[in-house]
Design a protein that fits this description.
The protein contains 16 helices and twelve strands. By secondary structure, it is of the alpha/beta class. The chain has three domains: 65 residues, Alpha-Beta Plaits; 227 residues, Rossmann fold (3-Layer(aba) Sandwich), CATH 3.40.50; 62 residues, 3-methyladenine DNA Glycosylase II, Chain A, domain 3. Helix 10 links the parallel strand 11 and strand 12. The longest helix is centred in the N-terminal third of the chain and has 21 residues. The protein is globular and about 80 Å long. The two termini are 40 Å apart.
Length: 439
Amino acid sequence: MDNESQTPNYVCFDKDLCSGSRACLKGCPTLAIRIRQNKSCRLEGLCIGCGQCVRACPSGAVRAASSGLGALEEDQISVAMVSPILYAQFPGFMPKDVLLGLRRMGFHHTVDMSYFLEMFQYAAEEYIRRNRVSQESPWPLISPVCPVVVRLIAHRFPNLMSHVIPIMRPISLMAREVRDRIVAEYEASGKQVSLYYINPCPTKKESCSDIALGESRALERAIGINEIYAELSRQLEHAMSEDRPCFYQPRYEFEACATGNGPMWGMSGGEVADMNIEHTLAVSGLSETINYLEKIELGLFRDVEYMEFRVCPEGCLGGALTAIDKYLAKNAVQKMVKRLGLGKRLSPSYLRRLYDKGWFLPSTSPSKVLQLYTEKKKPLTLDQLKEIERLVRDIDGRDCAMCGASDCRTFAEDVVRGKVSLEECLLVRARDKDPYTAK
């Protein structure tokens, strides 16, 4: 992949597959993608991992920057870090079946995020209750669960970072527990541990960046749900065809999904529906998320205490790396919740003690997040800004994207920054050749 950005990139481009359709340009919320020589895609700005380009590309030239599953090493302890969205990909099967299928694939431990979603929920509710008194954070508070939303806010709405609730995200809580209990135990006996984060979107292992593994030698890998779907499907079918059902006894409570609360979080509105907070709102989809963040920036929704944002349509079930239709997955979750029921596994008094000890506080401050995800461009001078405005007027185009940038203004900025020539614009070339089309 051609890449000039110094910021994290969550997608890769295969220029041999690229058809030059430019569909990826139009969907990128950070205007990060460029096309050169009509085919060579490259990132020249900040990628926030929303997956819009992966969805939009008609030729499959854009894919997530994943580690891939490969063959599980027999001499290593393989730990699957499971998002509940995985369960929704297999209608008719229960979470225990899916976790068992992962173990049949060779994973030694299957850690279910549902346990840590319950932890996060309590901490978020407690923070909201205390914020009613302290008014430490402005309303509405914004969920930090979707990492793409946090990056989007840092990039386009930095003034709203104070609205993001300062609680460790569920995946980070899970990573810390796995490090402290599973990884530490095996490394003490000299065994190598590999952690596999099974994701519905192109977030890579950076999803857990706010919980460091310290001196641990554990290997961290990120794989998409779509990368393990075929093999996991085969394992589930084999299990169903056996004369006797297979059972396994998990070593830790967080290796089992005991209630429907976790799977429900995969749907848009599932997070706030599971909270004991009255004034909440759930928004899904990238354009809708941007629209509502703009409204919050204007001072609206101050009567709302907590807002759940998911950039994927229908929530995480619509993630770019899922395997089945999001509405089929939603239907599967609804049936799963009905069968499992809703309930809690953890004691409120236990969680209250953890909260008072600061157990849920992230190590990454808002300023650090801004530093990581704010695009670092050389500031434009006043003369350069005037030149961009002049070029936009002179081009007078229709944001056709044939120049390889998403719109005329982005192209004009690239010209001023010296990245491309003005002759890359087809309209400009046509006017130069035909005096009758010149202004």
